[in-house]
Amino acid sequence: SKNYKIAVLPGDGIGPEVMKEAVRVLDAVAEKFGFSTEKEWADVGGIAYDHFKHPLPESTLKTGEAADAILFGSVGGPKWESLPPNLQPERGALLPLRKHFKLFCNLRPAKVYKELAPACPLRADIVGDGFNILTVRELTGDVYFGQPKGREGSGKDEIGYDTMKYSRYEVERIARFAFEAAKGRRNKVASIDKANVLTTSVFWREIVKEIHDNEFPEIELENLYVDNAAMQLLRRPRDFDVLLCPNLFGDILTDECAMLTGSMGLLPSASIAEGSFGLYEPAGGSAPDIAGKGIANPLAQILSVALMLRYSFKEEEAAKAIETAVEKAISAGYRTGEIWKEGDKKVGTTAMGDAILSFL
Amino acid sequence: SKNYKIAVLPGDGIGPEVMKEAVRVLDAVAEKFGFSTEKEWADVGGIAYDHFKHPLPESTLKTGEAADAILFGSVGGPKWESLPPNLQPERGALLPLRKHFKLFCNLRPAKVYKELAPACPLRADIVGDGFNILTVRELTGDVYFGQPKGREGSGKDEIGYDTMKYSRYEVERIARFAFEAAKGRRNKVASIDKANVLTTSVFWREIVKEIHDNEFPEIELENLYVDNAAMQLLRRPRDFDVLLCPNLFGDILTDECAMLTGSMGLLPSASIAEGSFGLYEPAGGSAPDIAGKGIANPLAQILSVALMLRYSFKEEEAAKAIETAVEKAISAGYRTGEIWKEGDKKVGTTAMGDAILSFL
Ligand SMILES: CC(C)[C@H](C(=O)O)[C@@H](O)C(=O)O
Ligand SMILES: CC(C)[C@H](C(=O)O)[C@@H](O)C(=O)O
């Protein structure tokens, strides 16, 4: 029977406690759907810095290399904030992980569950029954990794600079992913750029159009300037289906979308390489202020397991089972503290895990 | 007595009709506060393309050069959308105007008037009594103008690229402006960057801190990553006072802020050079769909006159008089169609101009 090797990297803050629930859910669906998993745990982020003097130690990279996928918790916290940039948990672990494993494609679904629509910061008439936006963000190119970057000169003339850059290959690859993703959804892609100013964006837009016209003419393609997109998401979030974004604009718009849902603790994300390898993590942060209290919402981490099953292991049924169990738990009124309101069933991290298991 | 030379560039779409009201208001305050104006009208944008085959003809630049300030309407429309990028109204006129006149500092106030809070797309409990954010956006540097930019190579390896870049001088200059602006307000500056990824941002953050510590230690300084800022603006807009932004991040966040107010037709902006020269324009677009119908909201254009009086002519009293008249008209219930609701007094462009004149 099938066996999947998983590198489990719980990280800092609430990471370990929500990871515990995610692993319980993973084990339950494995049994139910007839596959097994082999889990190797490793440190990442602040705790890895404490143990190994680096947020992404060689040993952790090795653990990842030996695995079929990485299940990632969250990293960072006040304790490590004054480290030099390259040793900081987020920057020193996330960016090198993306580069090392060539995780070019970042998927961030921003979904409002009907029952949670009141938690959304937008006016009720704009939210309606909720919205469901999938951002497909390019993750290993753009001004994040473009060379050269540096500082030069001195005095008033000293400059700091970075290079924004995309190759045709990179744009084609991510565009195909976005159009494919739209097929199983509402068949609409909004591609984000700043083609009225940036040469990189003119290039991006041209290639996205080519891929669309030649390979996906049946998908509806809209081009939006990033500034306009930041506005339209507030006015008509329900109109959007798939957002196709370069790395930097994707960074900004996915966070805007996440906040728009009002329930950050429910948003998983996937960072995928060519082939089937991927890294799966909650969209929210390590929330050091509530760490260790048993009150963190484990749903984003649990839903990250579903994405891992879908994208890395092609276990679609098991993925769906988890997603359905989460929906049922929400419909049944189970809520962790940050989204709880009068009339809901207030539960802690473990009890939410129990609820999901009971609905599986 | 004082005489100010103004280049009036109404542009396209609703530009000419809202400009007409703005000029009536300007003439009224001039008389009231004892100064005179000399106005030279010139074409810009699509209409300039139609007349001169360029959205920013040499003659219009000359008109601007001979003036103390430019009062700008809005440019663009479907008629000119398929022109080559450099001839398009927005790109071909706005960017060269900024560069030519060295308009390094863009001020975009995003203010929710208490009476208009219901038009805001955010939940009522988040908006409260309204918010008031002033974005100070650097406007002549960053990846907008950084060199080199271009395309190279061919096939899969072809690349498109731009250079993100700031000099110490540019950052110091805009930071000082932001801290000064905060003095007359709530003494808080949030500086926006992406220092966890970009070298340009590390440089930006370092210089902003220096200027703060050495020259404005009494101002509260917060540093926010741009992705986090895009989120926090949705959750706690009332906490922000002055947002200090590099060009690209400012482009995105000012549009997010503008949409958050729910009343784009009320937002003026100023683009200022060293010395007293400036260009003043509404934050909204040319709205070709409602052009020529006499229903466009002239308040953003009228409030742009107030900014011109304040920043280029130091006529603070006259500026305040206009702003007070606008507040009174709003309190009295005057509304153009796009923000009108049951119980308000619905007025067209000219009648709104009349209302402002009557409250002066
Ligand atoms: C921590 C940071 C480097 C990272 C990014 O900018 O990509 C984060 O904001 C994200 O979106 O995953
Ligand atoms: C039209 C465009 C070039 C411009 C910009 O990006 O600066 C516009 O979006 C703005 O904010 O004034």
Automatic annotation (TrEMBL), chains A, B:
NAD(+) binds at residues 77-90, 285-297. InterPro entries: IsoCit/isopropylmalate_DH_CS, IsoPropMal-DH-like_dom, Isopropylmalate_DH. PROSITE patterns: IDH_IMDH. Keywords: Amino-acid biosynthesis, Branched-chain amino acid biosynthesis, Cytoplasm, Leucine biosynthesis, Magnesium, Manganese, Metal-binding, NAD, Oxidoreductase. Residues 5-356 form the Isopropylmalate dehydrogenase-like domain. Pathway: Amino-acid biosynthesis; L-leucine biosynthesis; L-leucine from 3-methyl-2-oxobutanoate: step 3/4. It is found in: Cytoplasm. Its main location: cytoplasm. GO terms for molecular function: 3-isopropylmalate dehydrogenase activity; magnesium ion binding; NAD binding. Mg(2+) binds at residues 227, 251, 255. Its cofactor is Mn(2+); Mg(2+). The record marks 144, 194 as: Important for catalysis. Its EC number is 1.1.1.85. GO terms for biological process: L-leucine biosynthetic process. One of its GO terms (cellular component) is cytosol. It catalyses: (2R,3S)-3-isopropylmalate + NAD(+) = 4-methyl-2-oxopentanoate + CO2 + NADH. Belongs to the isocitrate and isopropylmalate dehydrogenases family. LeuB type 1 subfamily. PANTHER family: 3-ISOPROPYLMALATE DEHYDROGENASE. Homodimer. Catalyzes the oxidation of 3-carboxy-2-hydroxy-4-methylpentanoate (3-isopropylmalate) to 3-carboxy-4-methyl-2-oxopentanoate. The product decarboxylates to 4-methyl-2 oxopentanoate. HAMAP family: LeuB_type1. This is 3-isopropylmalate dehydrogenase. The gene is leuB.
